[in-house]
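Problem 12. The chain below contains 129 residues. Write out its predicted structure in C-alpha cell notation.
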Amino acid sequence: MENSDLSEYTLLVAEDDLHTRLYLKEALKKSGLNVLFAQNGMEAMEIIQKGTRVDLIFMDAMMPSMTGFEATRSIKKIKPEIPVVMLTAYVDQDSIKQAVASGCNDYLSKPVDLKVVQTIVKKWLTGNK
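Solution.
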C-alpha cells in the first residue's frame, strides 16, 4: 500500500492458515497498519471482548473451534460498526449468502491477491476505492 499511512488503524486477521497470515502481514507491512492476528474465531472474539480497538476484521470462513460465520455473528452483536471481510476459498452463491447473513460487509476470495487486499483495506478504512 504505497503512499498510504494507515498507522492510525488496526486490522484484526482471524485466520488459521500460517501461510495466509504471513502473506497478509508482509503485504500490509508498508502501510503502517497495525495488524493483530487470531488463529481462530474464538481468539478473535476474545480480542473484541477485551475492548481492543479494531477498525477492520479479515475473517477466515472455516476455522477450528468457531467458524468465521459464528465469530462474525458474535462480534457484530458486540461491535456492529466494525466492518468484517470474509476470507474464503469458497466463492459461490451459498457461501456469499452465508457470509452476508452472518453480518459480513465484504469478502475476499483465496488465494488473496495483494492489489485486492489493498483496495479492500482502503475501501473500509478510508473510503477510498
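Discussion. The mean pLDDT is 88. Students who got a different answer should revisit the alignment rule from Section 12.3.
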